[in-house]
């Protein structure tokens, strides 16, 4: 789906192929199509934050608030390129289904 498979190559983070190599589905069916992927990205980020908070509360007794905030911000920044790509993939898969019989043609 992306020109470069490494999400941390930030210079080409948003570079996408024009269409799917298997079925020919365009990856940008309309302008600003991926704006809705922000909601998916938000959900993924909230899930990560809640998981970190729960894990820290289970593993450590009363972790410091400043440590928790620092860890969550660091994790959010570090995972943002990966979250962006995953959310775009989920967004396009919500609306377009891969159909192998069409791809064979």
Task: Please describe the structure with a list of short key phrases separated by commas or semicolons.
105 residues; mainly alpha
| End-to-end separation | 20 Å
- Total helical segments: 3
Overall number of strands: 0
- The percent of residues in helical segments reads 55-70%
Q: Give start-end ranges of low-pLDDT stretches.
A: none
Shape: elongated
Order of helices and strands: HHH
Q: How large is the share of residues in beta strands? A: under 5%
Which helices and strands appear, and what pairs or packs with what?
Elements: H1 37-59, H2 65-95, H3 100-103
Molecular structure report:
The chain is mainly alpha-helical and 105 residues long. The protein has a domain at 34-103. Helix content is 55%, strand content 0%. The chain has 3 helices and no strands. The protein has helices spanning 37-59, 65-95, 100-103. The model has no long low-confidence stretch (mean pLDDT 86).
């Amino acid at each position: 789906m992306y020109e470069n498979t490494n999400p941390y190559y930030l210079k080409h983070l948003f570079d996408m192929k024009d269409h799917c190599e298997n079925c020919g589905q365009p990856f940008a069916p309309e302008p600003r199509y991926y704006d809705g992927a922000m909601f998916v990205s938000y959900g993924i980020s909230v899930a990560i934050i809640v998981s970190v908070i729960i894990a820290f509360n289970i593993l450590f007794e009363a972790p410091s608030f400043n440590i928790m905030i620092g860890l969550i911000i660091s994790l959010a920044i570090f995972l943002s390129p990966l979250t962006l790509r995953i959310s775009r993939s989920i967004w396009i898969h919500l609306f377009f289904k891969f159909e192998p019989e069409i791809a064979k043609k």
